[in-house]
Amino acid sequence: MRCLEITGPYQMRIIERDSPVPGKGEALLKVFYGGICGSDLGLYRGSMNDYATYPRTPGHEISAEIIEIGPNNEHLKKGMLVTMNPYFNCGECYSCRRGYVNCCTENQTMGLAREGGFAEYITMPTERLYDGRGLGAKSLALIEPFCISYHAVKRGNVKPGDKVLIVGAGTIGMGALITAKQIGAEVYVCNVSEKKLEIAQKLGADGVIFNDDNATFRSKVDALTDGNGFDVTIEAAGQPATMLNCIEAAAHRGRVVEVGITNKPTELIFNIVERKELEIYGSRNSMKEDFVELIDMARSGKINLEALVTGECSMEEAPAIFERLDKRVGFNLKTLIKFN
User: Fold this and answer.
1) I want to staple 137 with a disulfide (CB 3.0 to 4.6 A). Which of 32, 169, 198, 253 is the partner?
2) pTM for this one?
3) Helix H segments across 122-281?
């Protein structure tokens, strides 16, 4: 079989290796689509050293068909289209013992700490597979990134009628917008790209903030909230400045959710946290219930998963696509790689 491999920063190639053989409790899967995630780009750029090693097959946003499977407790059968939970937890740490497997202290995410899914065939433990229940292969490849957004919105306890600001209009931010609107919140999106803000409005945003100047950010927030601030702010850009924006834009007794990833330091005058009595939440990965609930929402038509797809390529085209995405050539939200 063929697969993609990143051997070091800015070094991607297509290689051939033996097809995997499923072990006990595993299924053999034929991969259809894999979504290119920010962490895949981070691996390509060499900025994920805290999480990954080389060489590495990237990819964890996957849809696939079950080719071979044994008896299992998940009622999965050969021929089913599935998606998967790519976060491998240890089962023994304090987080796992309390049921918070999404933030396992020894977490190994596919495509970073362990081999990923950008290959023609992979194996997976059956307990990590979720029946697509009639969803198509493209939609199923979008379940995992949407789950990140969905989990973040749940962490912020977004309720009907809440005023929500999402800072960052990439895949995760847009997914959070769609999810929060489905709940019944009044949702605004902030970004430095006018094109992405146009897409946000098409996806249902009640308003947008074009943040070309941090000096005027507060006045724009005040204008949208009558000076009160937002009930919930969600940081989905992964930049120090955007986290500070979320804290600044939150109402007194507001809730702030951090889902973006960065290792850059943030200078925070923390009196604002005390003065506003803010609730600040981290949001990492997703839980099984997030996957199951989101699949049901997509099946019922409440969420259009494929609304975020802006491109598709073959495995042969993938190295060039990674180079383009790294250089930010053209507009992109979510690019899918077709493997079979």
Assistant:
1) 32
2) 0.95
3) 137-141, 143-155, 171-183, 194-202, 217-225, 240-249, 271-276
